[in-house]
Structures are given as structure tokens and as C-alpha cells.
């Protein structure tokens, strides 16, 4: 993978970026995504944010090697703190982290979101945390997709400002994904069901405490929601 040939996962993230928007890519790693978006003419300028020194230096080196220093500003900082009001950022991408971490980054930096129009989020796991945050902070899902790459399954959630209500089932599996019921969606949740059933079998062999009972009830509820969605 490089700035001209993204992974399938990042290509799909890129496909949701609207043309001529100012982008902030948080946790940008090598800054492949913003470089690709400039090369393809989708954006004219962007910010690559990194909180880890190694990836930050890699992003700087990548942007220099691509000759894009005038278009992409690589910044060192935690989450959305790399964004300034004067940047007029309209789109934020956060890819390759867990859902709870993405939600915590958005929560910590929510004062930076006033002028932002679109959040394109790719959690590796636990996308539910993002949907819960979106409801609480008045963002709505405008698109979702699910894909498999290198034997891993990823979800992508696109948010824009607006109110949203989701059922417990939609929170867990995704309202758009549940309607589409793709092959990858079936694979993901069939795998989850097998794992949850394995845990249930282990719990059945465990001395029944209140904690074990609560865990079993939670799993039973999730199993029922997922089975109904397939």
C-alpha cells in the first residue's frame, strides 16, 4: 500500500470524502489517505494528525516525498487538538482504531466539530460505541458499509449532523448494514454468534454468581438481536 494505491479499506473511506472539502485525517499514520485524496483531485488541502512520534515522522517524510507540503499539513497532537478554527475543516476521517477509542477522540474534541459537516469513521471493532456517541451528540448515520480485507472484517460509518433514533438491534449491527445483509455482514455476525455461544457454554460450566448471570443475560440478548437480523 502507498499514497497512490490504497488498501481496499482506505479506498472505501476515501470514496465517502466529498470533493473540494478541507479534510483532517486523525491517526493518519503514513498520511497515505490525505496524499491519495490530493493526488486524485478530491481535496485541495488537508491535515494529517498523529499522536505517536514514529508515525508522525513517517507522515512528514511521506508528504515531503510526494511533494505535497503545500497541500497537506502534518501535525503532532492528540486527537482533534491538531485542528484549529482557522483551518475550516469540513470532513474528518478516523480509520483503523477501535470504536470506543474513536468515540472517545470525538468526545474529547467535540468543541472542534462545530463547523465540521461529515465524519467518516472506520472502527476495527465495536462500531456500536460510535453509534451510541452519535445519538448522544446529535449526529446521524448517512451511510455504512462493511468489507473484508486480509481475513479481517471492517465497518465504515458516515455521520452528518442531525437527530437519530436507533433500536438496540440497529445500535449493535448498524441500520444500513442490517438492511443490506451483505455476504460479509452474514459472515461477521455468524462468527460472532459462534464465539458468543462458546462463551455461553463456558459460563454454563461456571458456578452461578450474579456476575455470571448478568453476563449470560447480556449474551442471550445480543444473540437474539443478531439472530433476528440475519
TrEMBL record:
GO molecular function: tRNA (adenine(22)-N1)-methyltransferase activity
Pfam families to which the protein is assigned, alphabetical: TrmK (PF04816)
Annotated InterPro entries: SAM-dependent_MTases_sf, TrmK
Gene3D superfamilies on file: 1.10.287.1890, Vaccinia Virus protein VP39
Ranges in coiled-coil conformation: 186-229
SUPFAM superfamilies to which the protein is assigned, alphabetical: S-adenosyl-L-methionine-dependent methyltransferases
Keyword tags: Coiled coil, Methyltransferase, Transferase
Keyword Methyltransferase part of the UniProt annotation: yes
A biological-process GO annotation: methylation
Source organism, top-level taxon: Bacteria
Keyword Signal tagged: no
Protein name: tRNA (Adenine-N(1))-methyltransferase
Amino acid at each position: 500500500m502507498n499514497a497512490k494505491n490504497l488498501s481496499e479499506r482506505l479506498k472505501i473511506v476515501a470514496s465517502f470524502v466529498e470533493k473540494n472539502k478541507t479534510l483532517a485525517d486523525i491517526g493518519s499514520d503514513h498520511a497515505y489517505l490525505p496524499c491519495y485524496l490530493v493526488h486524485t483531485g478530491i481535496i485541495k488541502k488537508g491535515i494529517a494528525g498523529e499522536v505517536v512520534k514514529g508515525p508522525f515522522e513517517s507522515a512528514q517524510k511521506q508528504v515531503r516525498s510526494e511533494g505535497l507540503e503545500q497541500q497537506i499539513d502534518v501535525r503532532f497532537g492528540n486527537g482533534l487538538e491538531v485542528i484549529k478554527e482557522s483551518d475550516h475543516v469540513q470532513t474528518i476521517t478516523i480509520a483503523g482504531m477501535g470504536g470506543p477509542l474513536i468515540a472517545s477522540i470525538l468526545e474529547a474534541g467535540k468543541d472542534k466539530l462545530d463547523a465540521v459537516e461529515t465524519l467518516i469513521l472506520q472502527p476495527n471493532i465495536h462500531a456500536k460505541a460510535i453509534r451510541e456517541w452519535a445519538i448522544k451528540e446529535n449526529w446521524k448515520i448517512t451511510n455504512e458499509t462493511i468489507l473484508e480485507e486480509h481475513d479481517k472484517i471492517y465497518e465504515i460509518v458516515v455521520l452528518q449532523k442531525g437527530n437519530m433514533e436507533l433500536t438496540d438491534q440497529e445500535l449493535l449491527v448498524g441500520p444500513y448494514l442490517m438492511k443490506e445483509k451483505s455476504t460479509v455482514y452474514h459472515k461477521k455476525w455468524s462468527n460472532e454468534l459462534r464465539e458468543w455461544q462458546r462463551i455461553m457454554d463456558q459460563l454454563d460450566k461456571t458456578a452461578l454468581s450474579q456476575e455470571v448471570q448478568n453476563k449470560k443475560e447480556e449474551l442471550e440478548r445480543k444473540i437474539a438481536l443478531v439472530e433476528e437480523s440475519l
